[in-house]
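Page 42, continued from yesterday. The earlier attempt failed because a stray header line got pasted into the input along with the sequence. Redoing it now with the clean sequence only.
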Amino acid sequence: MTTVRTRIAPSPTGDPHVGTAYIALFNLCFARQHGGQFILRIEDTDQVRSTRESEQQIYDALRWLGIEWDEGPDVGGPHGPYRQSERGAIYKKYSDELVAKGHAFPCFCSAERLDAVRAEQMANKETPRYDGHCMHIAPEEAQRRVAAGESHVVRMKVPSEGVCVVKDMLRGEVEIGWDRIDMQVLMKADGLPTYFLANVVDDHLMGITHVLRGEEWLPSAPKLLKLYEYFGWEAPVNCYMPLLRNPDKSKLSKRKNPTSITFYQRMGFLPQAMLNYLGRMGWSMPDEREKFTLDEMIAHFDITRVSLGGPIFDLEKLSWLNGQWLRELPVERFAEEVQKWAFNPDYLMKIAPHVQGRVETFSQIAPLAAFFFSGGLNLDASLFEHKKLSPEQVRQAMQLVLWKLEALRQWSKDGITAVIQAVAESMGLKLRDLMPLMFPAITGQASSVSVLDAMEILGPDLTRFRLRQAIELLGGVSKKENKEWEKLLAAIA
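This time it went through. Structure tokens are written below.
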């Protein structure tokens, strides 16, 4: 009997996402329920955006929740390497095999030609897709150009007629017309694979039997299935999980809901409550109880109980459930968890040097440093009135700083300072002109300990959350402003 093997394959390109944890949880439960194995693989072929810092954050965030894996980059295993960036020779071998078999071909089209083709197709109200231009180059000619070092990608061939039947554990058979499927790039010009080739090769070589992934991947399923067919491999069983939604039913996004797992850790949620809540996303226990542990979820897990309606990720509901968990803790354990959360020696030692020189009695510490132990703040809009800037410029400056901080991967005082400095210069201002906006947004006060040090200590999640709060308090950002300011953002060094 085949051992069930599932996996999660996040990209280390940003903050660890609750959607990743949600999919990881269901893959873990499915594997454990069948006595199988759960694998963690890192999809880091985006060399520009992937970082080891983000990779470590993924490990830390999933382990904080209580999600453990049997194989992965940090624990090893018989199917490594588990980082795609270390598997380049493997992908090259299989890409060459597809070209040799006539299932794929080198494409030499320039970006300008591809843009022109797509623009013409859209003008004719056609589905934008590759027009097969290089598919007709004789194989010998194509190989000669490749050998001569001409820049190219490798594309897969796909049928132009008929339908692909996708079998999904939740939806049954789904028919997708081949006329909607593009000739996917499999190997990029830099010699690295795209998601599609790497995904199929890795899942096959790692013995993955079942793939539970987000339903946003369902429209592209025919490409994956066709690759399995081209290689002569058996495809894993697929299950397309419903996407997490904001309360307004839109796709979960950080613009409307904090999506970073570490945000919830910093806000003081219990990992057991967080995991419990993610387990309730589109699934329920047979007896419909709301509070349950990971072990209880695994014991009663049945994938057919997943509901296809988009599960709502509601911060109020999560807070309510966390409250249930907190109130049921023995009081000694409650005190331990509070200490572990923010009153631990490591965190206190970061804060102490900045507080010590500003107090004369211990009783002054709490009013001065309360913001270090808070999530959101009760902000006063009058603190954001500025001598040099109009209310619109205040919102613009803060939004530009927020966007730049969202892209800051190595969180440090120097990096934060450089971001604010760059935004100030782009607006014809000095660093000191923007600092009066940072103090109330981050500390809730007009002056406090060094706000740059405070931002470093609070970390990226709470810093960004508080800036978003402040911008919303001041009226938010309209769609028109968003468009205009994103152009300004692109010009900031």
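Notes: The CA atoms of residues 356 and 365 lie 9 Å apart.
Reminder to self: strip header lines before submitting.
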